[in-house]
Structures are given as structure tokens and as C-alpha cells.
Amino acid sequence: MTIAIDGPVGAGKSTIAQGVADALGVLHLDTGAMYRAMGLKALRAGIDPKDAAAAEALCAETDISVEMGANGQKTLLDGEDVSSLIRTAEVSAAASDVSTVKAVRRRMVALQQACAKKASMVVDGRDIGTVVLPDASFKFYLTASPEVRAKRRYLEMQQKGEPGSYEEVLAAVIARDDQDMHREADPLRRADDAFLIDSSNLTLDETIQAMLDVIREAEK
């Protein structure tokens, strides 16, 4: 069984996906972490993540892999576990830029498809139901208003002691939405057969339950 969860930045895809995976007793593949690892590599190499030629060349000499188990996903960059290093705003911005490079996306998609063939899992990202797993058992498009997503992200930043204002976060969310939805390679969009879930007025548990209800109803 494969469950695809797509949606814009800040929709809570990874957290929701992990909750659904835990409830079903299957694995969770966070595809965004792969792009973050590539963004981190670009920053370390001192190249502009928006430079397609440079990003393509760097990707060709980069080894990105994941290890999945009961304790979650480890993201490896050239053999180094970078799971705790790829959640900064700087890496997120670099990941957004490098993810627009077609060659980078093709390589990541192939890796993601290979992972999904090994076991039942929940896979979240921005092109899972449309590109990576078009034949997924279940597809969901998880979203929330830009204001709600920005507020969630801002609260996370405050908890971590990261600088920035709500207005700055909201502007970044809107800009990221525009980039993701209008990029040339695999733009973010809702698959025709994906269930739409707007979590603007839902709690974490309610959002997870909404997905589980769809899955369990189909399995009756």
C-alpha cells in the first residue's frame, strides 16, 4: 500500500504523514528531506542553488540516501547523517531553489520510487501523487490558508529561538507557494483523484483522523 500526501509549504505534511504511518503500522518517507540535503550540499559547496548547471553537476557527484526504520527516517548526504542539519530556514530556502532544477528532480524521483517499491509506506512531498507515485493506493492534497501555515511556522521558530517576524514568514510562504506552483519541473498541483483536506480549522489529530477515515472506509 502506498499513500501519497502532497501540499504546499507549512501544511504539516511530514507530521501528518508520520501520524498516519504510525496508525497504520507502515513506514514514512519524507521526500522533502532529500531536497533539503541537496540544498545543504549546495550551500556547503558555495554554489548558487538557482544555478541549474552548477546544481546539476553537483547532484551528479552527490550521494543522497535514506535509512528507514522503527525510529523514523535518517537522511544521509554522502554517507553523513544530516537529519538534524537540514531543518534551518537557510537550508529550506536552498532546497526550494535547487528543487526547481529538472535533473535534480529526476534523480530524486527515481530514488523515491525505488524506496516505495520496497514496502508499504506513506510518502509526502509536492509531486508524489502526480509524478512519483501516480498509481498510489490513496492520494491526499493537504493544505491550509497561507496565514495559518505562516502562523504555525512562526510559532515553531519562536520555540526554537529562531529570528524573524510573522510578516516575514507569511511573505516567505506566499513566495514559496508561487515558486512551487509555477516551476517548470513538476509543479505543485492537486492530483485529479486526490482527496482534498484543508487543515486550517483542524487539529493535528483531527487531520490525521480525516485521512484514516478515508483509508479505512475504502478498505471495508
The main pleated sheet reads as: 5 strands, parallel
Q: Largest sheet, order of strands side by side?
A: 2-6-1-7-8
Mean pLDDT across all amino acids: 93
Q: How many individual helices?
A: 9
Query: Got a strand count?
Result: 8
Task: Report a brief summary of the structure.
The protein is an alpha/beta fold and 220 residues long. Helices cover 51% and strands 17% of the residues.
Topology:
Blueprint: E1 2-6, H1 13-24, E2 27-30, H2 32-45, H3 52-60, E3 64-69, E4 72-77, E5 80-81, H4 89-98, H5 102-116, E6 121-125, H6 128-132, E7 138-143, H7 146-160, H8 166-182, E8 195-198, H9 204-218
Parallel strand pairs: 1-6, 1-7, 2-6, 7-8
Antiparallel strand pairs: 3-4, 4-5
Helix pairs in contact: 1-9, 2-4, 3-5, 7-8
How would you describe this structure to a colleague?
This protein is α/β, with parallel strands linked by helices. It has helices at 13-24, 32-45, 52-60, 89-98, 102-116, 128-132, 146-160, 166-182, 204-218, and strands spanning 2-6, 27-30, 64-69, 72-77, 80-81, 121-125, 138-143, 195-198. The strands form two sheets. The chain has a five-stranded parallel beta sheet with strand order 2-6-1-7-8, sandwiched between helices. Helix 1 (13-24) crosses helix 9 (204-218), helix 2 packs across helix 4 (89-98) and helix 7 crosses helix 8 (166-182). The longest helix is centred in the last third of the chain and has 17 residues, at 166-182. The chain is globular, with a radius of gyration of 17 Å. The two termini are 15 Å apart. The mean pLDDT is 93.
What attributes characterize this protein structure?
9 helices; 220 residues; single chain; 3-stranded antiparallel sheet; alpha/beta
